[in-house]
Design a protein that fits this description.
Length: 139
């Protein structure tokens, strides 16, 4: 279930659930709503299965539209700054610690707080990549 956690995290950030262990139909729905809102906001067309692709870190997300959609979603939940795309380490650690041991949340935030990239969309993508490389922390 570890692949499911990132979306669960995004959902968790909204305070909807305190458990990151499951990716329920309800969570999927919320994640979809976030993606839909961002699609409208950005005026772009996302693949219908964007949320699934995000969850699985599908290689096809390595494009401008998807990266900016990630940034939009992350900014909405407070992971990244809406203007700069820079990780807000405090928010990241705080919200992740709601469904995980605090030490793990802190460890993850330390590893992934320096999200580099030329644009804010690149930075959001970098955070997403870092998550997929380091998600075993939460096992
Ligand atoms: C992180 O987000 C919190 C809550 O929105 C805010 O108070 C804080 O100033 C932010 N920190 C940075 C470095 O942007
Ligand atoms: C964690 O992510 C960083 C940054 O992307 C990467 O350099 C590192 O190899 C990852 N660590 C693990 C254990 O995967």
């Amino acid at each position: 279930m570890q692949n499911l956690r990132f979306v669960s995290v995004a959902v968790l950030l909204l305070g909807i659930t305190s458990s990151m262990a499951f990716f329920t139909a309800e969570q999927q729905e919320i994640a979809k709503n976030l993606a839909d809102a961002c699609q409208k906001e950005l005026g772009v067309e996302l693949p219908a299965d964007f949320v699934t692709k995000m969850r699985l870190a599908d290689p096809s997300l390595d494009n401008e539209v998807s990266k900016c959609a990630l940034q939009c979603i992350f900014a909405k939940v407070g992971f990244t700054d809406a203007e700069t795309g820079v990780v807000n380490r405090t928010v990241l650690a705080q919200k992740l610690s709601k469904g995980n041991p605090v030490e793990k949340a802190e460890q993850f935030a330390d590893l992934c707080a320096n999200n580099e990239g030329e644009s804010k969309c690149d930075k959001a993508f970098s955070l997403h990549q870092c998550y997929h490389k380091n998600k075993s922390i939460f096992n």
